[in-house]
Amino acid sequence: NLSDKLDRAFKVLKGQGSITEINVAETMKEIRKALLDADVNYKTAKTFTDDVRTKALGENVLTSISPGQLLTKLMNDELTALMGGTTAELDLKPSPTIILIAGLNGAGKTTFTGKLANYLKTQKGKKPLLVADDIYRPAAITQLQVLGEQVGIPVYANPESKDPIAIAREGIAQAKQNGNNVVIIDTAGRLSIDEAMMVEIEQVKAAVNPHEILFVVDAMTGQDAVNTAKVFNDRLDFTGVVLTKLDGDTRGGAALSIKSVVNKPIKFIGTGEKMEALDVFHPDRMASRILGMGDVVSLVERAQQQFDEKEAAELQKKIRKNKFDFNDFYSQIQQIKKMGNMKDLMGMIPGVGKMMKDVEVSDDAFKGIEAIIQSMTPKEKENPDLINPSRRNRIAKGSGTDLQEVNRLMKQFEDMRKVMKQMSNPAAMANMMRRMP
Ligand code: GDP
Ligand code: MG
């Protein structure tokens, strides 16, 4: 599946300190393949990977995240933008708001009509009326009536009539009479696109002048969904898309393709047969779903939020001059703590999550260290070499720890300074690498 493929793609980048032309090209090739398999069409996948590649090459890799993680975040942002960026709301200002539902047979139109009415009633305080305008299937009217009953919303039907245009008009008249401020018209579909159906729905549109035309499509039909969307949009110029049956294991690549081919927002997704199984479409959540690695994104976001680049540059300068002191050490600890609960944070790293389940990691881990540093005088913090045995004794008492703990911290600090000094000196670094097995 896509997730496995992306894992493999990211392996290419693993352990590399920066995103380079070579590793990104290889990864993008894998990602393009993975997207194609998830029903994203070729043109969209190509544009997408080209864009991400350009952005990735200009990106600084933060020390706290891997290039693979950074790339995931970039891809997530790019996918989100491609799917419209923000949530597209229905225009509910006109009263009554007239909403026309269109799509092929079995796409989930009637089910969605019931769900939408329920949503508008319970979440938006609206008083909807449903109109049964599918006159070809005898069971269609009953189906809508049953759903209406279930969610407590009236249904207008005229089983004697064979004129969908007249029924739609009658429904709207009844809504005005009864004070319903939304009218949702459920229409007839066909097994595949045919001219008679298109003409009929065009006529209904012309007669009722809807404020919203929602095109309902089964997400599981993959590339067909994109083709159908194109034909319906050419004829109806719809205002939004509803993707149904996203409760299965479909990754939702259709969402990306449809948006990029017809350039209309996806407004809702159906996630089950029940009347409550409707979600407002959130581009960022769908992006995570397509990528199949949602948590990495929030991890990177948090790291980026907390990592102050200026502070980092300042720190590097100090390290180079061997001026790293206890003030810096203390603020490093605060940085780490700011990133949130350690356990949560580590749990977000793919593969680590499960391992962390039984391990106790707490922020208290820093408590002793913080107390020791706080018990130093400003001079001692700035110049750790001053801290002789008698000073260590005083610090231990002052911090409520013991001499052993203070000595341990001093040793850790010295080791850290040594390593830092080596890392900031390219010659020493090269020397160290040469000595490694
Ligand atoms: P219509 O022909 O377009 O009106 O489609 P229906 O509303 O009658 O739905 C066709 C079938 O798909 C029914 O069995 C529905 O219960 C089912 N269905 C609709 N929406 C969803 C959904 O979001 N998830 C799942 N699993 N099934 C759905
Ligand atoms: Mg139907």
From TrEMBL:
GO biological process terms, semicolon-separated: SRP-dependent cotranslational protein targeting to membrane
Lineage of source species: Bacteria, Pseudomonadati, Bacteroidota, Sphingobacteriia, Sphingobacteriales
Domain SRP54-type proteins GTP-binding: 265-278
Organism: Mucilaginibacter phyllosphaerae
Domain notes: Composed of three domains: the N-terminal N domain, which is responsible for interactions with the ribosome, the central G domain, which binds GTP, and the C-terminal M domain, which binds the RNA and the signal sequence of the RNC.
Entry keywords, A to Z: Cytoplasm, GTP-binding, Hydrolase, Nucleotide-binding, Ribonucleoprotein, RNA-binding, Signal recognition particle
General function of this protein: Involved in targeting and insertion of nascent membrane proteins into the cytoplasmic membrane. Binds to the hydrophobic signal sequence of the ribosome-nascent chain (RNC) as it emerges from the ribosomes. The SRP-RNC complex is then targeted to the cytoplasmic membrane where it interacts with the SRP receptor FtsY.
EC supergroup of this enzyme: hydrolase
Name of the featured protein: Signal recognition particle protein
Keyword Nucleotide-binding among UniProt keywords: yes
Binding residues annotated for GTP, in chain numbering: 103-110, 186-190, 244-247
GO molecular function: 7S RNA binding; GTP binding; GTPase activity
Main location: cytoplasm
Alphabetized SUPFAM superfamilies for the sequence: P-loop containing nucleoside triphosphate hydrolases, Signal peptide-binding domain
Protein's cellular compartments: Cytoplasm
Pfam families assigned: SRP54 (PF00448), SRP54_N (PF02881), SRP_SPB (PF02978)
CC annotations in GO: signal recognition particle
Catalysis: reaction(s): GTP + H2O = GDP + phosphate + H(+)
Keyword NADP attributed: no
EC number: 3.6.5.4
PROSITE patterns reported in the protein's UniProt record: SRP54 (PS00300)
Subunit structure: Part of the signal recognition particle protein translocation system, which is composed of SRP and FtsY.
Family statement: Belongs to the GTP-binding SRP family. SRP54 subfamily.
UniProt-listed Gene3D superfamilies: P-loop containing nucleotide triphosphate hydrolases, Signal recognition particle SRP54, nucleotide-binding domain, Signal recognition particle, SRP54 subunit, M-domain
